[in-house]
Write a structure and sequence with these properties.
Blueprint (H helix, E strand, L loop, with lengths): L2 H23 L33
Length: 58
């Protein structure tokens, strides 16, 4: 492990310890955020490089 990676890991652990102490002091329980996955809308402007068979008919 390089020195910079070790330093980043130590900093992360320090921040995590501070956050956990803060959460415990205020009786906070972290929970996962659950959001729906939005469909990505993609606009294709140049189809010359895509074979016709791969282009869906809309």
């Amino acid at each position: 492990m390089t020195g910079s990676v070790r330093a980043a890991h130590e900093k992360t652990e320090q921040c995590r310890a501070l956050q956990m102490a803060y959460n415990q002091e205020l009786c906070l329980v972290p929970k996962t955020i659950k959001k729906p996955i939005r469909e990505k809308v993609v606009e294709i402007t140049d189809t010359r490089h895509i074979p016709r068979s791969d282009i869906p008919s809309i």
